[in-house]
Protein 1
Amino acid sequence: MAPERAAVRRSGRTGVALVLLAFVVLAALGRPSLRGGGGVALAEDGDAFERALSTYQAYLKRPSLRMRTRGRRRLAATGDARAASILTKSYKDAVAPPGQEQYLIAGLVAESFGTLEHRDLLKDWRREHAAAKDAWLWFTTLRPAIAEGEQSAVAEFLDVDEPFLLHAGIAACAAERSANSVALAADLLASRPKPETHRALAIESAAKLLAARRSDLGSEEYDRVLEELIATLRDPRTAPRTRLVVARRLGVIFDTEEVVIDPAAWSARLERAAAPPPTRGGHEYADFGGIRANGSRIAYVIDLSDSMAAPLTDAEKERLRRAVTPGGARSRGTGNGATVGIGERDLPWEEIETRFDAAREFVKLSLAGLSSKQRFAVIWFGTKAAPLPSTTALVRATPKAVRRVARELDSIELGPPDAEHESGTLRGWTNLHGGVRRAFMLTESRPVGTHEYVDVKAFTEGVDTIFVLSDGTPSWCDWTTIDKRDPGDRAYERDSSVEVLRPEKYYSVYYREDDLLPDLERLNLFRSVEIHCVGFGESDERLLRRIAAVGGGRVRVFGGR
């Protein structure tokens, strides 16, 4: 039995029992599911399932993940219990690409069959797949049960040995702002598991639960547990990454952007709610595109799609100037906590003509403001996505490392123009998902592989802050494949929006918000990484805000729609 799970069960039986009773009451009152994952009504046509099944079986033979997913959605749309059984069984047979097909299946089944009538099937499904890599399955399928107040849901995840599954259930409680959140947070803080990763998960999950129930601030029980969370900041066993996560969550609870590691400041804030915490005792930070973020392990995820070769408009250039001048209320770190104004002289405005020129200079300027205690990496994305050669791992921001990256950025040149990009080209389409996913794969030594979201090395050594800069909407992913068109589908040239008359089309998966955003949520399920977005050109501000919301980050847009 895992130490933290055993401790949670021992210390929290009374609290959880009361919570489970509350669940029953909530269920009796008919509390609706916040997930919106009820099953689809059964088709009146008795042959509908058989037709959908035939279509599904045909789609499984298609080369593109997009088409296979389309087939699964059509089967799920029947709402038939047989469809639920088929889809859950297909989870273990999913082979390509590793992991991603399973994540999509888990989300689809939870959304389509989350009602009470399918609850036993989902429970058996979880029991059959109880490894760390299955945490997303547990999170998505527990949410409907927790939202509806089922008393068995909490007991189920508290009784597993795998820590990531336990914390997937806790994350589901936080996502649904469940009534048991404060009691579970208290149990987690009392558990004190010895393995460093388990302890970090326990403290950070407690912080997530309390932030989800921040409306309870001021109640006796909540404030008591919150004081216990604040106390973890003074415990020498608390890892630096966990201190940052806790400080960020405390900022959410107290509605402030200040990231303060000093526990005395937060205790004082708890005692007198009107007083803001002092700025002393903060954390390392970085400025990028007019956004300041606290963090010591930073990934810059930069769009190198062809549209980034477009020239800046005068209005965009003026907004960029204002963002980095002293009048723009932005400043730069000197490595010792002091700040200095950034003047126009710090950017070579006479050389900034295109969107990529501006992005490149923003990265170089931000890197120049980091201290040598911080680590960073720069990742580009076009049709493909990859880190720059010198930052395949998180490297210390030494002057030598910063100069090396600056040279690599300066070596990137525009390609020849084409029919769609008269000003030149860069590296193709917009694989934003691939860029962000690679940021979550980074460590101090080498990128991790499959199931990066539950990789212990990535959890302990990975990024804590991501800056995303893009000028458009996603149009590509790592698993984009050419496939036969369905009736009604439109086909385009690979690097153009020009429609062509041919039977094939390139099918992507994570260009759709309905797939992109849940997978970003999966990547960040345990990591608590802040994600900040900067938009250029035709960037979709609404989408950027939704992406930033996954990481509790901020957005700055220059141009956009």
Note: The longest helix spans residues 196-212.
Protein 2
Amino acid sequence: MANGKDNVVPLKAPARAAVKQTLAHKPVETLPRALQAVHLLLSRALQQGLGQFFDNADDALFERADGAGSNVDQSVYFEAMRSLRLARSQLCQAVFAELREDFIRLNNPQRPSAPSVDVYGGEDLFAEDVELVSEDTLERQVAIKTMVSKQLSGHRNNIDHLWRRCYFLLERRGSDDNQRLPSHPQSQCEFFVAQLEALEFPLPVQLLLLKLYERTVLAQLASAYTVINQKLAQQGVMADLQRQISRERRASFNRRQPQLRADTQVQGQALGELHELLGEEQGLLPSAAEAPAADRVQLSRSQLGQLLARVQQAQVEAGPITEAPERAASAAQLKQLLNSSGQVSQLDRNIINLVHLLFEYIWEDPNLAAPMRALLSRMQIPLIKVALVDASFLQAGSHPARQLLNEMARCALGWEEKPGSRDALLNQLQLIVERIQSEFDRDVSLFTELHQQLSKFLKREQRRAELVTQRTVDQARGQALAQQAKAATKAALNKLAPQLPTAAITFLEQGWSRVLQITLLKEGEGSPQWQQKLHLAHKLAQLLGHPERADNKENLAALLARMQRDLDEVGLDSFHCQQWFDGLHAHVRLQPLRREVALDLDAACPAGKSEPVPQEPPKTEAEADLKAAPRLSASDPAMRQARRLNQGAWLLYCRGEQRDRCRLAAILPALGQYIFVDRQGKKLLELNIDALAQHLKAGELQVLNDGQLFDRALQTVIGDLRRRKQAQR
């Protein structure tokens, strides 16, 4: 059948009169007939998956209740089981209705959606910024992200192919984004979580049900993707899709060829000019002119491998290298063994010398902590063996051994030694090196296996660090916004009448300022609520100016009653509130001397208050030291470097003898703050742009190079060899 849209036969879509018009199976009339059939097949997959989900959920909740450690926990699971049974019909209808709406939205791609607001990316601040993300929300977000990643990694091709075919049937209307595909794992997970939240299930129950949803409903949908793709292809809908994708990839590759040639220039030189440069180099092995007599037996690659294996085994038995003298001793041992065993060909000598020079660079690399450099140096002998048996090692950046070495160096960039402790990352890298030393002979697939193992470990580590980092950044945002609200409140109150009684000043400083700050954070400075609360403060100052007038006393009593209700709403301590009002009432009767108003919102809050006024976080030692330093101009190299820093960059923070590695976790443009965290995600430093530039200029913050370690080493070695050769001419 021709690959067209008008003559596509629906995938056994039943006639409209023969179908019971239920919400789950009602055709989406405005779509092409083939897409109506796709909707029907996905609905059937959902129906089957939901049936399995509710059966398994009932059993799982009962098991949790049966194994609960307390009556309270047991009642939680029994109540969840009862609620889920009652909500079964409603939940199924909601899922089917959402799928139907997703298909209808395909036919209305231009329908405007609610504008998304980048809360922290612009200059405006919103009240939501102040609230820290709850741990429950973070757990749900991580669970969704994990599930979606798992589904995409296992079924990415089927999802992409199905979307391409749907997009083709839609005559390519709207944006070409496969997340628009109805039943996409991302939208499915997010919608289901929203339904669970609406049912007010506790977090443990939500996570349990979400996992069951993945194993049942998402698994059924994944199977449906394959079946639907096959049926559409059989009916001529992009039957040659795989060839089309291959053509697209070739075209993309051809477009990238100039850049690829530039990127692989160094690797290409490694096979040509590099051997010429290494010909006379005094490396690990002597040059051809200083090589042993020609009558000695030339070592084959197999014999070289056996000799290298002996050195490799000796290193395993000796334990890890920790000092430079030990490293030199190991190099001397290898050199002596090779020289005493026979003649090494010029090509093999060049390869061995090159890898040795690369590891000399790694040993001296200041971007890595000394223990990590020592650990990576243990891979020198195995990688010499790789270079001898696999010519692509020096040429291809995608070689498994190079990828593993680069990944190990990348994750070690933020690692620093903690006296008396060994963390999980160091242990993981140690295990990888030990396996390479003990197992590698000629099969480079070991490096692929270990790279996958390391990637899984790093994903778990990254998940934990992201949770801590998110809390750290949210807390910093909240503190900064609270300080802005505090400053705005102080400025507004200081514009009151020039003289106020002592009781009024106490009330405004310790009580009403809290109401103003919370209103400002929630509603904004231009909101009617903020203006209203500020008006009440102005009214109070006016009435206290003439307390002897009878009408003022009546108005003051009504005003104080109104303000007391507002104070109660923000949760201030009732005992202290009563003290403030008693003082104001006493002033009306006794009229004590007034004093100039100079509101000090930094004064300590009275003991016993349930919610103290947010205090300004103390200046970090780094900012305090540079407070008096002159501001750098915009053209200063340090200022330009500060502005070029990207989120995720690693830096070395130097304070005397102390060295800490930190990552730029967040840039808050509206607040002018740069937040740095350690590898675990805990805040280490918070600076504004001026302080950051000053630290960079003083060398107290040094940007670490997070480029590919092997490629950096190769480029540096080639550059050094060229300069030496030019100097000899």
Note: The CA atoms of residues 292 and 340 lie 9 Å apart.
Protein 3
Amino acid sequence: MPLEADAARCGTAMLFEPGRGLHPAFKTGALAARVAAVDNRARTLESDNFLIHYSLRAWHRVHTEPGDSALVRAADSLFTLLASLPDGPRDSAVYARLDSAHYPHPAYILKTRDYFESARAYYVGTLGMLPPSSSALSVQYNVSPSLNRKFPVDVVDVGTVDSFFAGETYAVTYPPPDLSIAFENDFICRTSLDANGRIRGDSIKSRLSGEVIHNYAAEWELGIKVTAFHEFYHAVQFTYIPRVTTYHAWYEISATGMEERNAGEVNDYLQYLPCVLYNHERIPLTSTLQGPCTHYPMYGQAIFHQYLSKALDSAFDVRVWDQLRRNGDALKDGLETAFAKYGQSMATLYPDYASQVFFAGKRFRPPGPSFTSDIPLWPNISMDSVDLSSAAADRVITLPVLTFGVLKVKWGPKAYARTLQAKVASGITRIHASADTSIVEHLLETRIALGPPRDGFDAYYLVLPNPSYTEKATVEIKESDAQFYAYPNPVRTLAPATLYFSQGRDMAFPSQVRIYGENGRLVRTLEFTSPDQSMTWDLHDAGNQTVKPGLYYYRLAQESLKVLVVLR
């Protein structure tokens, strides 16, 4: 599948140098000098919490629908009537007359108001986050100083007001002291005006694997909704952190996660997933750098935010931003302090997240409900493979911080058991999966026996997470230094209740395996009859009763006893 090289984006991240603070061109006091439209007058829709400023002419003419035709005719007539006035006074006079005549606002502006009010109601009213407020009446337009002080949203052609945002840019949230939002007027980019003053350009679209998900110039209401929820969350973030010195990935991860939570039908985030799911073993979760697909994968990493809203609760991110406000915007501490409130940590959450992301796409059937119903829509996750019949199976896998690998383990006719030794990587998951069924085993140890797959499967998969913020992880596959293992260990009596035994390379056949209870009583005797046999134990004793949780011992022939832990 192709990567989405030209995925549309939020302009806010462009204001900051990756992993650093505000771009020098946007330091305090420099913003007005970048704005080409500063002399334009605007019409204003005032709502409970917002001032929505917009234009009905030239570059910044807001999108209108057939239902707005009376307003458009009136505005065009007034512009013609007042043509002798200079631009600024003419614009002001037109909009004053439209307001005094009580002409309605365009559908595009009414929807913009509705979705911004909905975003504020959710973030501030429902979640209890800090309400953004701005000292600016407008950044892009000249407006009446008598307007009430509310949060300004300037609806403009984003790429025209500043060529820095040329391309498929939805909107820009400027941080304090110019806290405001420049919002795309029609979801058309790289614009020009034709001889009749009509806007021409390219539609802003979201795409997945070359297929268009949405054309926002046509489906403008979806574009307004997803952008309003995303950008107003940036305004909330800047209320917690008024002076951003390090623009870390959580700014975009959380804004995209909240966008998907509140505008789930839009699925704009899907366009960023190929970069993440095809490169999960080399793109750190919190990277702010450009990915191999030429855009920034932190938008796609929002699936971790989606996961956390299910694994913790819908208000977990309030705790994150509360802590970031207290600790000077230190991300690791902000996340870990928030996770600790739930008795969790990155070390416990990230491995579980990685094992669920394994089921991206339609290749395998998840064993239970996922953290998002969208997971079948995702691209299939990429994976490496190891054939235990080959000498080339012995290898070392290196995982950067906060990444995970997926390894397909194949067992051929000449295969023999090997040992997987993990350093730093923890919470490894073994998955036997097919299109019909999946069995997930969470492995507690970092030294794992690689043996044959379960009956009915020709391979199994290992999800290898590195939940560390600072240390690289290594996973080494090598010849077994002990020839015989039971796995998984510990094993649970809950379904699937099966224990596997790996064969040693030089094992004699037949060979018996005896399992003893903690009191030394013989619980069960099993037998390897041939090199082709996959030895399993169903955790039943000789009387066909499920064994109780506890400590057990097992032994092959006359070898020394090994310990087995059985959990409920």
Note: The longest strand covers residues 403-410.
Protein 4
Amino acid sequence: MDKKKEILELIDRLNEAAKSYYQGTEEIMSNLEYDELYDRLSTLEEETGIVLSSSPTQKVGYEVLSSLPKEAHAAPMLSLDKSKDREALASWLGAHEGLLSWKLDGLTVVLTYENGQLVKALTRGNGQIGEVITANARTFVNLPLKIPHKGRVVLRGEAIISYEDFQKINRNLPEGEEPYKNPRNLCSGSVRQLNSQITAQRKVNLVAFSLVEAEGLDTTKELQDKRGAQLDWLEQQGFQVVERVSVNSTDIVEKINEFEKKIQDNVFPSDGLVLTYDDIAYGQSLGKTAKFPRDAIAFKWEDRQEETVLREILWSPSRTGLINPIAIFDAVELEGTTVSRASVHNISIMRELGLGIGDRIMVYKANMIIPQISRNLTKSNNIVLPEVCPVCGSKVKLNDENGVQTLICLNPVCPAKEIKSFTLLVSRDALNIDGISESTMERLIDEGIVKSFKDIFYIKDKEALVSRLPGFGKKSFDNMVAAIEKARSTKPERLLYGIGIPNIGVQTAKLIARAAGGKWENIIAMKAPDLMEIDGIGRVLAEGFENFFKNSAKREMVAELRNELVLDEEVQAVGNSLEGLTFVITGSLNSYDNRDRLKAEIEALGGKVSGSVSSKTSYLVNNDITSASGKNKKAKELGVEIINEEAVIKMIKG
């Protein structure tokens, strides 16, 4: 191929991948492939002397596309050159001392403090111009808004979201919304929100990695000269600072190996290490290239690859209707764990790899964590796309958007799209099946083990299928089956809440069950006029209830589920001494194991329990009446009486 033409093609592919990587939720290229193509482009540019302005070798970071205010950086924020050779880093360091630290995988932010106060936060942007995100930065969970030093301070840090918070946020996404692919994408979207309240909900952390300026600092010479001393000073100011160690050319390989052992247990995502000269003046004397500073270099893990054989492609439907290919291959050992499956992301990647059953493939762990296929050695390209969804059996469609092909289920009520309905059914206030989280339920649906509500009670017959899911051994399977069998005995109000009728919460389900005499057949026979006679139920809720049972598919699925259950239809005698009163319970309790126990006693006497204080609240129950909590403040503002647990017990006992 003509080298200039190849350069143009590489620029297009790399820029498209970078755009998706930094701003979207869909990865269209593996990290390994990106690095290989980038290196190939760099080589071609050097060979030909042709460097185009649109080349990713000349650009830093993502393009500024949002409507946030823009501001130019005082000095360009450059990328780091990189190496995968540990010995080469020792040579790069030479006779000098260095600092080795994590290269965190998030969004770089520049922070400015004046008179001890945070006054500005700016994203890296494209390296020349960033976006002003000061209001959002104020919501970072660990960022000091005030620091002891009163002179002007400028520092750089990485905004990051932990793996745990990333998983929680994905679990709680609205029905039909595509999950984020990794914490970096989620963090980028969170930090660059126009509404800082959304940023606050995402639990973003800031980890400082560089002091740019500290005006008026009465420093020792060491603090002026050494990066390590500057980072120590930032810690004294209250910042969380990146983990780092001092290194020299004789021990740097050993220190890299020590970092490597920590990767699997890392709380935050990382995509390598950063090596910096500790001597600031020496590092600055080296200058910089058009893209890279010469005082620091990034180390990227040399991906350990293993050859294996592709045995199967599983088709995994998601809540958005996408049906993603999952490669199943002969198990190999990678980075200390056994790996036998990897996501292929979409049809375009599968076809580009030329995957076929029986092919010899190379697999690795991206950033030593996520299994991926790097290349296909035989490329038989014999995978046949499914004609129907593996979960619901409905027709599928091959979609092509901007050159990325995906497979989509056309059924709007496919169980894979209604994952939250299944998760609600097994939740604590519904059937209360311990051990089935949303992620577990999603995997059970993906594998075709659960297609309808009743299938949950036949998981016991699918041990061979369940056991091949990551994290499921004999003990975890037996525990899950035991929890499912225990859940067969339940109450009508729990079943009513669990089937997911719009706007039917726990309390409303109890009201309806009581009005129907606790009989399930009476409950499902109720019409909108009957429901509207119940205090607290309006027309919208009542009509939604009736319409739910008019849907033949949902009615049939609920009927099948009912046949698997033993319902306790005895109605508990209810008093009315607390009728008309609404309580909010907060803080710890002394006489009850938990708030639900107290809540049940209040409701048994006709009272209501709400989660938030409002003008309709009769009493706020809090054993710490003098607390400065938000609920106490709200109660005082509204004139709601705050009482302790003992006062409620007296009301209950009459």
Note: Residues 3-23 form the longest helix (21 residues).
